[in-house]
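Researcher: Please predict.
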Amino acid sequence: MKIRTLFILIILVGCESLQKKQSVDYLDEFKGYSGHILYIDDYPNAEGYLIKKNGSDYRAIGLPYVTQETIFEFGNQKIKVFPLDYGESRITIEDESLVNLSPEDAERANNEARLVRELVSKNSPQLDFTFKFISPVDNYITSKFGKKRYINDQPRSPHLALDIDGVEGDPVIAPMDGTVILVDQHFYSGKFIILDHGGGLFTSYSHLNKWLVEEGETVLKAEKIGEVGSTGRVTGPHLHWVVYLNTNKINPELLVKLEEAQD
């Protein structure tokens, strides 16, 4: 069955970027970029985050981070995902035990990562249909999404988050309405919060100095949920902000406008 679809490469903020369109005829002709968002016209039994805008309904689909051209299957859709060069990041951590983990710490970190994957794989009812975000911290970006990481010159997994500068105690706010599904202290992330916004959309907040919410609590957009800190594996106080859409970590810069810190 032929379906009219939309492909939009996000170049502005959130749903406001529903401007650049490319019509395609078949489900296997969807195309997008690593860590980006694909918007399509809604249709019966479509999957993805539902957006209502100007009398029309759309679905937002989070695309995976890839290093080579990949076919990503989502529901009954096949999406060709192209890699992007996000650059690289090199940091030095003096505490070697945080770089080369003991067996006990490695097991703990793996268990915590597994828990997060399980939590963000759920799909609860949506709390919002606008897909409009505000930044959880009003400051500069210190490390952008997608960079290849080297820690003490050792290659590590890519940085699939946005690091936002701050000082101890700066407020961290909810970018959208959400439900608190995790408040915990993790090995890498330190004091850590996950919000469920419904529709397969989640956000997480790492290295906090303080939690100000509890699991099961509903928070409103712009409500303070914690404070910037330097807990976990960090080189200084900042917020490590992750956005998950249909389990994929997507580039938060597609959703909010922040300037990058200058050297």
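Model: The domain at 88-254 is CATH 2.70.70.10 (Glucose Permease (Domain IIA)).
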